[in-house]
Amino acid sequence: MKLNGNKPAAEREGAVLFSSYTRGYGIRKALEIGRENVLLELRESKLKGRGGAGFPTATKWMLVAASKSEEKFIVCNADEGEPGTFKDRVLLLEYPELVFDGIVVAGFTLGAKQGIIYLRGEYEYMLKALEDYLEQMRLDNLLGDNILGNPDFSFDITIRLGSGAYVCGEETALIESLEGNRGEARNRPPYPVNTGYMGRPTVVNNVETLASVPHIVVKGGEWFKKFGTDKSTGSKLFSVSGDCERPGVYELLWGTKIKDLLEIVGAKNTKAVQVGGASGICVPKSQFDRSLAYEDAATGGSIMIFNESRNMLKVLRNFMEFFVEESCGQCTPCRIGNVKLLEGIEKLEKGTYTFSQLNKLKELGKTMQVASKCGLGQSSPNAFLSILENFKEEIFNKNGYGGRNGK
Amino acid sequence: MLVLEKNSLTEEVESLVDQYGTERSALLPILQAVQRKHKYISDFVQQEIARLLDIHPVEVYSVVSFYSFLHSEPQGRNIVRLCQTIACDMSGKEAVARAVERELGITFGQTTRDKRITLEYANCLGMCDQGPAMIVNDKVYTHLTPEKAINILNEIK
């Protein structure tokens, strides 16, 4: 497999997502084999959602396909806000044919007439290029009325911008935002597949999930399943940042070990890897044998590397400041809990903590994991708990990040 | 003929409502359009949007106050957002931030006296492989150094 890093699309090669694909092929093939077969191929592929939660995509699609509602929606979640994650940026800018074809295939398969891309506000600079691409698709009859001459299939895609709220990456908060409300997560059930955008059945898929679909339709679920592991099929895009020589986006197969990834990206003297962004887990050196897969170290794609010179307490402080700012404030465990965890970090920095206070904060973190309303509060204590557990000795000594910039 | 500012704002909101519709789902696109042009959404505009969309003004304010890119108070003509998240922080954001503050004579969250620039922090711009990064209005700059950042800011009108 070739390594991609920060190379432009023309030079990229990869086993699955970055393998060769011609615009419109997935749509043509879907129209040719029919809805049922698209769903069967998708089920065969065992594709799981690439946003991080890993829900089987075919199951989600089948629930919407079975619905009798006259109006259904396909929503592409391009609210990529997890610190350390930038794979969707690369997919949207360099592989729009995969993302858009995936949305159109979803529209055809599920009987929807409208697709919506919820693009994070920070990516507004992409809007013009994406709108131009959609216009070209309309001219080529890949969007609009009677797509590719099929009288039963009319579908179009609109792009909606977010306005700088991380929580809107959560699918029900995203739907609230689309409907013109504050981006606050909904109680579930009902799930979006039953009651989504405007109360209609809605599939919300990650950009990378939808980008996988055209390959599966064209090359088959069996082909897709050959890559990766039994429980994590296919490949994964990893966005790598931090202390390494070659940061960037890499397509690797599920099951790749953390230590192998570190070698690929040129990471030296690594002491910790944050897998899954700020809301993910911090893996110490002793566990670099772990595999990147749903059954082991699961991730939406963010890999942040910290070398020996970094102060993990300062890293943790940055993560917690992020969550304090980004909590929507709707539920108490998340709104208060993140602030309390940050206060705990400040006490650790000043050396004014007691161990009984620390133990209470760990308990609080675990409470947040079960009692918060949405994924933000449920996962924000992950870094706190894993860094405190794995870097106990260091946390009580150092100040500053150290490293390249002497901070 | 002299057009009163309020009349002109009302006409502007009416034209946005014509463009995006009167459904509640049109609220964010309308607010974003106002924010893009005026750099903030005044109380009067919020009331006009509420009137035309037939929702309570408090509903409009609750949405404006929720999203970090929407402002109900006047901002500078240009909004500069420096990413403060971990990867940019590790690659030297602090030095850039201090240099920018010194140069402009304001701290983050403030606007220059000539209303030219409002300085804000952003939470992850998705440029973690190319930090430190900042957005000026909707244009992204990466691999910043203090000097590079100052040069970019000096170019802004």
Number of helices of chain A: 16
Strand order of the largest sheet of chain B: 2-1-3-4
- Helical element count of chain B? 7
Describe the strand arrangement of the main beta sheet of chain A, using strand numbers.
6-5-9-7-8
Which percent bin holds the helix content of chain A? 40-55%
Low-confidence parts of chain B lasting 5 or more residues at pLDDT below 50? none
Question: Total strand count of chain A, please?
Answer: 9
Measured as a percent range, the helix fraction of chain B is 40-55%
The oligomerization state is heterodimer
Write down the secondary-structure element order of chain B: HHHHEHHEEEH
What sort of overall outline of chain A do the alpha carbons produce when their principal axes are compared? globular
Gyration radius from CA atoms of chain A, angstroms: 22 Å
Task: Look at the structure and give the mean pLDDT of chain B.
Answer: 94
- Which radius of gyration of chain B do the C-alpha atoms yield? 18 Å
Biggest sheet of chain A: strands, sense, closure?
5 strands, mixed
Distance between the termini of chain B: 30 Å
Measured by DSSP, the beta-strand proportion of chain B falls in: 5-15%
Order of helices and strands of chain A: HHHEHHEHEHEHHEEHEEEHHHHHH
Strand content of chain A: 5-15%
The whole-number mean of residue pLDDT values of chain A reads: 92
